[in-house]
Amino acid sequence: MASSADPWMREYNEASKLADDITGIILERSSFGAGSEAQRHSSAIRRKITMLGSRLDSFQSLLKKLPAKQPLTEKEMNKRRDMLANLRTKVTQMASALNMSSFRNRDRLLGPGTKLADDMALISGLVADDGR
Question: How confident is the model over 13-37, as pLDDT tens digits?
């Protein structure tokens, strides 16, 4: 079992705490609806998700180097890989949730069911009707 003095576990716990903070901010943001306050929260969330993604990338490389620096059992290595994969999945889900809220805002502006392909077909039709 890894000790509390293990730097990788310490860093992982900090990253996990950051993921929990991001989740809290996402939940808090949903209470704002649309507007500048919601946009500020969205920007903060995106920054934190990006930071966390970068941190997870560095954890991945540290995990590969760890056996040479600190002997771990195969079971412990697998546990850490799983922990990292679970946290990465959580980050992906948070990013998806944030993107889905952006789509909802788009629907409020353009109307539900409007798709980029539909918009492009409409524009193409206008250009064709213009005789160009």
Answer: 999 999 999 888 888 776 766 677 7
Helix (H, G, I), strand (E, B) or coil at 76: helix
Q: Are 89 and 52 in contact (CB under 8 A)?
A: no
Which of 17, 6, 21 is closest to 62 using CA atoms?
A: 6
Q: Is residue 49 within 8 Å of residue 91, measured between CB atoms? A: yes
Computed over every residue of the chain, the mean pLDDT equals 75
- What DSSP line would sit under 13-70, residue for residue? HHHHHHHHHHHHHHHHHTTT-SSHHHHHHHHHHHHHHHHHHHHHHHHHHHHHHHHHHS
Which string of b and e fits 43-74 if b means at least 16 CB within 10 Å? Answer: eebeebbeebeebbeebeebbeebeeeeebee
